[in-house]
Design brief:
The chain is of the alpha/beta class. It is built from eight helices and nine strands.
């Protein structure tokens, strides 16, 4: 079963990324983002795309430029996530045939991102907008818009965010931080999936 959970592996290295991804996929998290400010991020994306491209959606986070979109596509990535809503980056992502999830906070950013072709919206940082803010914005978004809460949403409050209409979540340090072993990630990923399934009902 595919769940709307994106693992954010900020700081991961090419040497460890394959073992960590294997544990995430085994636990049921099949969307994996390597932020571009991680060491040799494109190499990690290439490794994951070759090893797990048929089993998971592999992509890049913290994508800030059109040039980076092109590099991610060449590395085999299928997902582009950004902390901001740069319409040039979104358009380039769609032109390359990849999924686009830009970071947004305001209705203006939401509609600009959707107008540029975004597949979904990343509310970031979710803790700043809050569940009440998401409910208010959801009232004006087109029906069916996919909204992911990132930054302050995790296994402790999935149900609250779902009640506020969040469709999915990006999970960073609650799943992985530099220094975590694949075993650490496995334990956390299983707990995250269990919490999500429980909140989903």
């Amino acid at each position: 079963m595919s769940r709307p959970l994106i693992a954010i592996l900020r700081g991961v290295t090419p040497l460890e990324v394959s073992a960590i991804a294997a544990e995430l996929i085994e636990a049921g998290i099949t969307r994996i983002e390597v932020p571009m400010n991680s060491p040799s991020a494109l190499k990690s994306i290439e490794i994951l795309a070759k090893a797990y491209g048929d089993d998971a959606q592999i992509g890049a986070g913290t994508v800030l430029t059109v040039e980076t979109v092109i590099d991610v596509a060449k590395a085999g990535g299928k997902l582009v996530v950004s902390p901001n809503a740069d319409t040039h980056v979104i358009a380039a992502t769609k032109l390359a045939g990849l999924d686009s999830y830009p970071g947004v906070m305001t209705p203006t950013e939401c509609f600009a991102a959707l107008g540029a072709g975004a597949d979904g919206l990343k509310i970031f940082p979710a803790s700043l907008l809050g569940t009440h803010g998401l409910k208010a914005i959801r009232a004006v978004l087109p029906i069916g818009t996919q909204v992911y809460a990132v930054g302050g949403a995790d296994h402790t409050n999935f149900a609250e965010w779902m009640a506020a209409s969040a469709d999915g979540f990006g999970i960073g340090s609650a799943l992985y931080k530099p220094g975590f072993t694949s075993g650490d990630v496995s334990t956390r990923a299983k707990a995250m999936v269990e919490a999500f399934d429980l909140a989903k009902g």
